[in-house]
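ping. complex inputs:
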Amino acid sequence: MSEFEPQVLAFACHYCAYAAADLAGSMRLSYPPNVKVLHLPCTGKVDVLYLLRAFEKGADAVFVAG
Amino acid sequence: MVERRMLGSVMVVGAGVGGMRAAVDLADSGYKVYLLDSAPSIGGIVAQLGFMFPTHDCVLCRGTSDHGYGCSRPSISPFLLDHSRHPNIEIMTNSTVVGAKGLPGDFTVKVHHRPRYVDVDLCINCDECSKVCPVDLTSEYQAGLVKRRAAYKASVRSAPNAYIIERGPYCDPCRKCEEVCPTKAINLDEEDRFEEVHVGAIILAVGYQLYDPTPAQELGYGRYPNVITGLQFERLTSRSGPTEGIVERPSDGRRPERIAWLQCIGSRDQEHPYCSSICCMYATKEAVLAKQRFPGTECQIFIMDERAFSKEYTAYFEQSKDLWAVDYTRCRISEIKEDPNTNDLILHYHDEAGTLRRKTFDMVVLSVGSEPPPKAVALAENMQIELNEYGFCSTDKFEPVDTSRPGVFVAGAFGTPKEIAETVMDASGAAARCMALLRGKSGTETAEPVYPPERDVSYEEPRVGVFACYCHPAIDEVIDVDEVLAFAGRQRDVVHIQALEYGCLSGGPEAIREAIREHDLNRVVIGACTPRTHLALFHHVIRQEGLNPQLLEFVSLRDNCAWVHRDDPAGATRKAKEEMRIGVARARHFEPYQKESRTFERSALVIGGGLAGMTSALSIADEGYDVYLVEKSGQLGGNLRHLHRTAEGPNPQRLLAGLVKRVHSHERIHLYYNTEVIGFEGHVGNFRTRLSYEGDGEPARCWEVEHGVTVVATGGYEYRGNVFLHGQDPRVITQLELEKKLSEDVDTARWLGTVVMIQCVSPPEREIDYCSRTCCTNTLKNAILIKQINPDCQIYVLYKDLITYGFREQYYTEARERGVIFLRYEEDDPPQVQVSYGELEVRVKDVVLEQPLVFKPDILALSMSIMPAETNRQLAEILEVPLSSEGFFMEDNLKLRPMDFTREGIYLAGLAHYPKFVEETIAQALATAGRAMTILSKDRLEVGGTIAVVDQAKCVGCLTCVRVCPFHIPEIDPKAVGVGSIIGAAFIEPSLCTGCGTCTSECPADAIQLRHYQDDQLVLSEEPILGQWIAA
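pong. complex structure:
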């Protein structure tokens, strides 16, 4: 049996977290590819329903960064 | 008389924070700007800073650093966040000015472009040239801490976003970079180019350079590896620094546990007889950062005076001492020794008790000061401007942003050492001076892009076209682009997929446009580098085919997939597919929208008729707009009326008389005496203010004015309360009263035997925890005058810290040379004043002598606190703007928006902001005019865009949005009708909404949607996309 790979959805604020994710690329840093980044104008836009819906549809973890 | 030509363009020399601010203000006001820098990228020294004091804002989201030049509220961001693509700004890097002919309004500037050897339009930042380059050089960006190649990128987020080849004797050239470049962007045979640029005005914002401590051999810099400069420490703490923010000793990579900062290295010495103004605060910031990052680090700062003279600085200093336990020792260190075995550093110093101590540190940071910028002399010759005795740009006290040559202005640290906020004020002020010179020429040299009419896609089924760049080798080396595209092609409503070599380069945009036409696409998804740099380009491309820019989705395949998962191509490809699937699903639901264009009132209200208010009003009125100038009292001038002399010489009363005369005679200024603001509503472009007149002679009345912008310039006052027998004994007077006495009859000084001056006198009933900034210099001014008239007079100045920042240091030096005696007292042991047998007696314990001293002065002059106007609280409530903890008005951002409120269209100047000198008040007042012009110069205001919109038919009027909005924008409109015909529904003013979306996620009725991020666009409806992943 293969090792469990959690599937992560990140909600990233445009001004800081998304800019940081982008900067990680520019600096050629690395992190595991099982994190999808969803770009939002601000983490204020994160509705609790989005988080629950992500879990409902299969995400193992949700990461709100802002 | 021959009519002179006036051009609608400005050249800004120097693209640091000041140059960028000036460029953005001018460009936003319709002037064409050439922004020039001698470095390969813009940003200046600020781009090397990771954090800004005192708020420790990570420059990542706030500032102008390498990370993205963003700010959550528009400051410099419209230009720099918007992908360095302001349509009115042309950037010229690697360029210097070599001459300027002509007259104000019509200059011909000769520019020397040094070759970059890389075409910035072709460079895709793949790093291949750097990988093959055999030459190692020192990295300027990392302050010499690491090496870089001769083929390099100035910083990871440089603008222009491209590499550069530095050619010197070390480059043969081997031409490997040319061969390897996948886009043929490199041409090593590129030659120097000279260009003549015609502009109406010039702003010099060339900044400063940090002192190089190598020649000061006693400090061991360059010999002892663990002696570094403040900027090097700054790089070590920065996330984009050589150690990714972990402070390590250069000698052994060990984390330093004991760090010392030495102040005034290259400041306040024989060679640099001035204070650099910034080092006390940056050393404090660095020490606090060290403490925050690595608890337990011992931080000791060796300091002469704690020069924490700006807004919120004192509080920051106190926090550094009390909360973070940073140790301050008053001692100037003359020598650093090294233990050669450990590379530890040994300092000898006297502690407060006078005992000689020896202490070992792991690292010593030199707080190096500011020097005139490199090549200042050549620049001055080329531009025909004068430098002052220190080698900085010469300015007049009352014209702080004017150089000696008309039409050439100066901003920032090139004029005098200064920090970010003051540089930003200067920059907007210099922009205002340019606009006043070139009035009426806005829009004459700029052109709006012309697009075909937009296609109405609202009744069409979605037809999505997906494009992806190979961007060889940046993307396709890691990601299987064809596989990603094939996957995207299987998504719903995708009718076309296409791979592009380079979507941004020649051929790419054309291919996208052709596909839109051929396949009748009405939604576009592009998988490419990063929206940060290229979103604006692709918006432009689809707009050319009549598609609304909001119908485009950008998926970051390079920065967010290929570059961060280089070791896992399969994982990266899978993630790229996932991101594409989200992109397509979002795009299917996209709807077009535009900004709304509105008419507005092209006039200003200025509250306060002092120096700041008059300067602001005149500057705005000179540019041709009506100004309502409201003064509470029956007289113009404010505190300027009480100033009779300046330390520098020029007469403030002449300035006052000139301003009053011009205000009275200006046809555009409507002046109201004895008038106060009693009501205020509306928003930028359309404010309505209720004014109330209550004066002698005429009956009281109330009326309303409508205006587009507002300037708050309500001033402050010198405290005159009952402290140290002031008001009880006629010999006890304030420094302003002494100034008045001396100005009325200078011979008063002749009969004075002893004068005592006490600094930092604050009201007993209220603790003042800020520095009033101007008092030390005023004290020195009066002391020097008395000594000039009567050299035998004994003058004692009792002080806590002597704040003579910048070139004001000369008055401190002069006063000491003239025999004024300075005695420091401790905060918790202040001087005592009493009358004994008719004689005035001042007792103080001198901290050096540790002895009580008694003086019997003829005059005791007190430096009283400058207090915020008492009406501030009331006015702040009316204007709905905040006050700082000190009681002054609170700007939006201490550093980057020092004259803007969070509420757009309201600006701040003078003592209402913080105590300041005449020249600083003038600069800030001009800056308000510069900011106001970015609004008033427009024909119509564009509002809205990506904002929250209420569907009032769903609104129950529950006030949730009103409560949760961090900017207090939503309100219940009583005229609107909500769900079930109830009266009153939420309304969000489009010109104010910042588009954060907080209200939309809280609204219980789902009545509010954020455009471009609607619930259905975040794919919550049919597709199970948010959480689902493709099987690995």
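Chain A has one domain: 8-65.
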